[in-house]
Design a protein that fits this description.
Pfam families (chain B): Fer2, Fer2_2
Largest sheet of chain B: 5 strands, mixed
Protein name (chain B): (2Fe-2S)-binding protein
Distance between the termini of chain B: 61 Å
Organism (chain B): Jeotgalibacillus soli
Largest sheet of chain A: 5 strands, antiparallel
Helix content of chain B: 25-40%
Number of domains of chain A: 3
CATH superfamily of the largest domain in chain B: Beta-grasp domain
Order of helices and strands of chain A: EHEHEEEHHHHHHEEEEEEEEEHHH
Strand order of the largest sheet of chain B: 2-1-5-3-4
Structural class of chain A: alpha+beta
Strand content of chain B: 15-25%
Number of strands of chain A: 14
CATH architecture of the largest domain in chain A: 2-Layer Sandwich
Order of helices and strands of chain B: EEHEEEHHHH
Number of helices of chain B: 5
Strand order of the largest sheet of chain A: 4-5-10-6-7
Pathway (chain B): Alkaloid degradation; nicotine degradation
CATH topology of the largest domain in chain A: Uridine Diphospho-n-acetylenolpyruvylglucosamine Reductase, domain 3
Radius of gyration of chain A: 19 Å
Number of strands of chain B: 5
Oligomer: heterodimer
CATH architecture of the largest domain in chain B: Roll
Number of helices of chain A: 11
Helix content of chain A: 25-40%
InterPro entries (chain B): 2Fe-2S-bd, 2Fe-2S-bd_dom_sf, 2Fe-2S_ferredoxin-like_sf, 2Fe-2S_ferredoxin-type, 2Fe2S_fd_BS, Beta-grasp_dom_sf, Diverse_Oxidoreductases
Structural class of chain B: alpha+beta
Number of domains of chain B: 2
Shape of chain B: globular
Shape of chain A: globular
Largest interface: A-B, 31 and 31 residues
Amino acid sequence: MKPPKFEYYRPNTVDTALSLLEESGFDGKIIAGGQSLVPIMNMRLASPECLIDINQLHELDFIEADDDKVKIGTLTRQSRIEISDLIKNNIGLLHEAVPFIGHVQTRNRGTFGGSLVHADPTAEIPLALMASGGTVHIASADETREVQIEDFFVTYLTTDVMPTELLTEVHIPIWKGRVGFAFDEISRRHGDFAIVASACQLTLDDHNKISNVRLVLGGVEAVPLLVEGANEIMIGEELSDSLLNKVADIVTGVVDPESDLHASADYRRHLAAVYTKRILQTAYNRARR
Amino acid sequence: MGTHSIKLTINGKHYVEEVESRILLSDFIRENCGLTGTHVGCEHGVCGACTVIVNGTAVRSCLMFAVQTDGEEIQTVEGLSQDGELTPLQQNFKECHGLQCGFCTPGILMSAQDYLAKNPEPSTQELKEMLSGHLCRCTGYDGILKAIQKTVDENKQLALTEGS
């Protein structure tokens, strides 16, 4: 298997990368880790005319934190996030999600930003980010802008990032107080694309009532699904079996999965409810500790 | 669509080659450099046979273009043994029946080499998860796991002896 021919550029600065993107327009494509792009190029499902390799942009490879948020550069390797104490201590949900991505060998090369812009609806990083909230920073030759994560995913494999733009970094808020989180997914084998993936983060008040919650499901829609209707009814409540059942009913009603080789739509809908209950219970128990 | 001149080091040896941008690193290693120890299986990052170490990290060579490795340092399975002497890991693959047909072996050796360097005392579960990135169609995982586990145990023993 060989990809079709393409032009290759390897800029050393973000500015050069952005001008190259501007020049190449719709023909240009950024390559970072290449763990999704190269397979689809090898199979000729994608054939960009021009690849702009950002692996030399070391200024985009960082994990930093201040009091309120953690900042992650787009080129940060997934394996670095996996072993980062800063991530583990401040965004436990992301720490829990990353080992589900592919395998050690692909996480060594795959990047944080690459997973976001690829926007596979079952991917782990998009899900974890939707459940934490955050801001995506995007640059082009002309301007820089910020997008809330809720507005970032447009549809299957499509984000708000335009062909001449580069995702540079993401800011993720550090949740304070009695925080609980959970991530889980089901796939036939470890490292496969998830059939259904789930993430949630919540906080409790002093009376063990849920004061904030973000439940997100993957593999059930074209984009990671923030289940707003379910999140609303949990506010001010303690987590009980009857609440879990109500939430599961809402989830079953709103998800609109497709059938494919791996699972039927009905099975995915069933799994969405099962995993919803499971991760909410785990997150709640963790917050109560 | 011109070619690119790249300079890189493979197993300590310097190479200067002209490559088309679309040439995969796996094909470059085998065809341009003649190092056929790196095997090519699925060519889309699933099987792990082509795993090599690039700048100290085990990665799939079928998911990189050779042109991306200009100036970088690569180790392939040929670079493991020194002066005909197998590494302890290789020796244990031999002793524990860690290979049958041998097709997946080079990739697993490179992965394990990198993984053990970074995680000297992994649990069996962690080793299995690391191995999940490699397909052995002979299904010989038991011997493979034993060989890696034995290396871990020997390294621990060695650290103890050196420590005392």
